[in-house]
Amino acid sequence: MSTLTESRPRPAVPAGGPAPARQGPRGLRSWASVAWFLVPALVLFLVFVLAPIGVAVYTGLFKWGGAGPMDEFVGLENYTRLFHDRVFLGDLERGLYLIVLSVTVQLPFALFTAVLLNQRLRGRAFYRMLFFAPYVLSEVVTAVLFTMVFLPGTGMADHLAGALGLEGLRGKWLADPSTVVPTLFVVMTWKYFGFHMMLFLAGLQSIPDEVLEAASIDGAGVWQRFRHVTLPLLGPTIRISVFLSVIGAIQLFDLVWVMTAGGPNHSSETMAISMFQFGFKRYQVGYAGAISVVLFMISVVFSLFYQRYVLRRDLSGAITPGGGR
Amino acid sequence: MKARRAARGLSLHAVVWLIGAFVAAPLGYAVISGFKSTGELTTNPFGLPGRWEAGNYTGILGDGMFWRQIANSAGIAIGTTCCTVAASAMAAFVLARYAFRGRELFYALFTVGLMFPFAVAVLPLFLLLRTFGLLDNPLGVILPQAAFGLPTTIIILRGFFRTIPAEVEEAAVMDGCGKFRFFWRILLPMARPALGTVSVLAIVASWNNFFLPLLVFDSPTWQTVPVGVQQFQGQYSTDYALVLAYIVLAMVPALAFYAVAERQLIGGLTAGATKG
To answer: For residue B275, which residues of chain A lie inside 8 Å, CB to CB?
Structure first.
C-alpha cells in the first residue's frame, strides 16, 4: 500500500536497530559540521512550536485582556476558575462523548468498509477513491456544505427526514441542543471514515493470504477467520486509528466553529472553541491561555500513556499524523 | 452454489453502493444546487434544475476575489512546503547518517512535536507573531505551518535516508565528494519519491489550514480559500444556491490535486501506520 515501503531499496540499517554510527570522512562527525544542518529545523521548531507552549503557560498565570502591560499576576486562579466553569466541564464531557462515538461507531464502520473493499469487487478502485475524497477537502468547505445540508426547512436533510418518516428530526439537526453533537458526529464520520478505511486497507494488505488460507483449511468460517486471524493481525493499525481519532477529537475546531460556533447555547462547544471565544472574542487572554495549557496537558498525558501502554509493542516511534478525527 | 455466490455478490454491491450514496449525495446535491436559484432550491430540493443556470458559477469565476484566494492559498502552500521540506531534509540527513553526541535526543525532541495539537499553539502563536510584526504577513502563516510540519517530515525522510546504502556514500567520498555535495547532488535526487510524499502531505495540510490564517490575516489581501469560504458564507448567508456554488468551486483544486497525487498522499498517510 505504502509507496514509500514499496519503492525502498534494501535497508542499509535494520529499522529500529541501533544508530548507524558511520565513520564520516574528514572529521564530519564533529559537531560543528553537523550543527549547520540542524540549525534551520531547530530554530523553526524552538520559535514556533516550543516557545508558544511557554508563552501559553506564562500567559495563563495572569489576568490579561490581550493588550497593554501584563501586570495582574493571579497565580493558578485561572485554573481553579476553569474547573468550576460549567461550559469547560461540558467541553470535556462532549470531547469524551465524541471519542466514544468515534471508537465505537466510526472506526468499526471504516473497518467494515475496508474489509468490503478488500474483496474482489467490480469498481472497488473507484469506491476507494470516492470514500477517501472527503478527507482531502478542508474542514471549512465540509462545514459549509453540511450547514446547507442541515439547513432547517430548505436543506436536504429535512426533506430526507420527511420522506423517511422521521418527522421528529425536522428542523432540529444543528439547531437543537439534543441533536447537535450527534449531527456533528455524522459530518465527522463523512469526512474521516475514508481516512481510517485507507489505514485499515493498508493493514489488511499486509496480512499474508497463506495465514487466512491455513485458517480456512482448519475449518474456520468467514466470521471466525475475521475474529481470530484478521482482527488480531490488524491490532497495530487499529491502535493507531484509535490514537489519531482521540487526538483529532481533542483539538476539534474548524468544523464546529463554522457550523455552530459552539451553539446553540454552548451545547456543541469544544475546548478549542472555548479557548478561541475567550481569547479572541471576549478578551480574557489569560484565561484562554490556561485553556490552551490544559488542552496541551491532556494531549501530552494521553499520548504518553498511550504510547507507553498501548503502542509499546507496535512501533519504533513512527506515527504519521494528519488528523483522523 | 453459483446462485448463492451471485446473491452474495449482489448484496455486497448493494452495501457498497449505499455507502457510496452516503458519501456522494452531499457532493452531488451541492453541484446540482449550484445551478439552481435559491427560490428553486426550496421548492425543488432534489430534482434537476428546471432551467440550468450557470450564473452562480460564472459570477464567482468572474470575481477577482475568488482567484486571489486561490493564488494566496497556493503561494502559502508552496512557501510552507519549501520551508518545511528543506529544513527537514537537512536535519533528517544528519539525524539518519551521522553519529554525534545528543543525536537521539534531537530526534526525540522533534518527534514529541507530534503530540502538540495545533490548536494549543494558536493563541500564543498569535501573541508571538504580533510581537514579531508578522500579522497580516504571509510569513506569519508559512513559518508556523512549516514548524508544525517538521515532525512528520523528519520522521519520514530520516527513515528513507537510512535505507540508502552506506556504499553509495563511500563511493562518493572516494570520488572526493564532500558532505554537502553528497547531500545535494546524490542523496536528494535518490530520495525523490520520499520528498514527493512529504511535499504532498505539507501542501494538503497548508491548503486546508483555517485556524491560523483566520487569526493572522485581518485584511482580504492575503485571505486563503478556507477563510474566504467562511466569509462568503457569512456575507451571502441567505443565497444558499450561490454559497453552494462557491464551495463546489473551492473544492475543485483540492480534488484535482488529490487525483494527481493520490499515490503519494495515501502512501504518506499510511506509511507510519503500517509499520506495526
So the answer is: 15, 236, 314-316, 318
| pTM, rounded to two decimals | 0.87
Report how many domains make up chain B. 2
In total, chain B counts a number of residues equal to: 276
Task: Give domain status of residue B138, yes or no.
Answer: yes
Q: How confident is the model over B200-232, as pLDDT tens digits? A: 999 999 999 999 999 999 888 899 999 999 999
- Under an 8 A CB cutoff, do B193 and A7 touch? yes
| B80 and B11 share one domain | no
The answer to whether position B263 is within a domain reads yes
Nearest of A266, A243, A278 to residue A93 by alpha carbon: A266
Q: How far is CA B129 from the centre of its chain?
A: 23
B226 with A1: Cβ contact below 8 A: no
Q: Which domain holds residue B24?
A: 2-33
Strand-pair partners of A62? A73
Residues in chain A: 325
Yes or no, beta carbons of A38 and B41 under 8 Å apart: no
* pLDDT: which is higher, B238 or A183: A183
Contact B100 A285 (CB under 8 A): no
Instruction: Give a yes or no: residue B255 inside a domain.
Output: yes
Give B140-166 pLDDT, tens digit per residue: 999 999 999 999 899 999 989 998 888
Could you give the ipTM of this predicted complex?
A: 0.90
For residue A73, list its beta bridge partners.
Answer: A62
Give Cβ neighbours of residue A297 (< 8 Å, ≥ 6 apart).
none
Q: Are residues B84 and B179 in the same domain?
A: yes
Residues of chain A contacting residue B204, judged by C-beta atoms under 8 Å apart: 136
Residue B52 within a domain: no
Sorted by where each starts, the structural domains of chain A and their CATH numbers stand as: 47-84+284-315 (no CATH), 85-280 (1.10.3720.10)
- Axis-axis angle for helices B103-112, A31-45 (nearest 10): 10
Find chain B residues with C-beta within 8 A of A2's C-beta. Answer: 267, 270-271, 274
CATH code for the domain in which residue B234 is found: 1.10.3720.10
